Amino acid sequence: MSASLRIDALTKTFEGASTPAVDAISFDVAPGECLAVLGPSGSGKSTVLRSIAGLDVPDSGRILVDGADVAGVAPERRGMAMVFQRPLLFPHLSVLDNVAFAATVAGQPRREARADAEQFLALVQLEGFGARPVTALSGGQEQRVALARALAARPRVLLLDEPFSALDPELRLDMHDLLARIRAQLNPTVVMVTHDRDEAATVADKVALLQGGHLLQHDAVERLYTRPRSLAVARLMGGRVEIPGTVAEGVHTSTLGRVPAPEGEQWPDGAGVLVLRHEAVQIISGDAPPCDDATITLDAVVAERRARGARAVLELVVGESPSTTALEAEVAASRAITAGQRVTALIPRSACAVVPLA
Ligand SMILES: Nc1ncnc2c1ncn2[C@@H]1O[C@H](COP(=O)(O)OP(=O)(O)OP(=O)(O)O)[C@@H](O)[C@H]1O
């Protein structure tokens, strides 16, 4: 059921707009892979998805499914199915007939189409719901029906446009689990639009990160967090530690001291901002462990502590005035670390990346 997808220099400018909504975007999605198209509002995510589906026509660029260009192919003939933010179910049909609709319209005998639909309802854990009117469903159940309906079309590529964003947080987590089960069972190629990086990190193998119609980085989720290519990527992924400095011969020098590039990484000479995830900063409130080459050990003062539910954010100050550096770290809320306290911050060197200044 899965196909490869290649997006090649996709460009689209809407009538009357001065800049492209999508500007020469290219990426590949392997068969069975789940790609999240992530970015802030207006970054071009839906335009990319709608172009793949054939609902928007790009000005230039190609969309290849298993190597074949789908330009000019009608949306319903592309072997794709799309789930939108709203389930868009037919209110006059039962749950089962909503799922069986496409097959019935395509001429499959009703009984067969319904039997098939039952299987997809079971897959989305709505076994026994077939006879209900869709108007009697909760939001989460409606979205499950929309997913079952899309899957019943046996798409080669499943397109999801913010499908869970209208659901409450608990239900969203359930839907993420459901999507994982669907992937394990049917292995579809999935492209999902989301503006939520946690959602992208939870459901996707890779992320295409967009901003202002440009593709900033297409990479594995983990690399977007730990190896951002630019300051914009680090910030969009929620990075909160930025330390300006200079790189010479692969060593970044700043108020934190000298940080050599991790093995296999190349940092170009010149001005560069050291970025690292606040989650990677470990806080020791007692005796510091002995120094080792793999770890940066810093004396710090807690300037502020902010509550974040089960976690707490610590604003740290490293160094002496006037050359101090601000650093953020996160600890379990249960840890009794208070503002004004002296602590040791440990940073694995492997957690450090250097990106160009702005
Ligand atoms: N049909 C259209 N006509 C004119 N402009 C459009 C149209 N659709 C999108 N745009 C513009 O193209 C740009 C990208 O929009 P798009 O919907 O692709 O972004 P998005 O990242 O999906 O945003 P959101 O998360 O808010 O849905 C925006 O500036 C938007 O206003």
From TrEMBL:
GO terms for cellular component: membrane. InterPro entries: AAA+_ATPase (IPR003593), ABC_SmlMolc_Importer (IPR050093), ABC_transporter-like_ATP-bd (IPR003439), ABC_transpr_FbpC (IPR015853), P-loop_NTPase (IPR027417). Pfam families: ABC_tran (PF00005). SMART domains: AAA. SUPFAM superfamilies: P-loop containing nucleoside triphosphate hydrolases. Keywords: ATP-binding, Cell membrane, Ion transport, Iron, Iron transport, Membrane, Nucleotide-binding, Transport. Residues 5-237 form the ABC transporter domain. Its EC number is 7.6.2.9. The keyword DNA-binding does not apply. One of its GO terms (molecular function) is ATP binding. The keyword Zinc does not apply. It comes from the Bacteria. This is ABC-type quaternary amine transporter. It comes from Microcella daejeonensis.
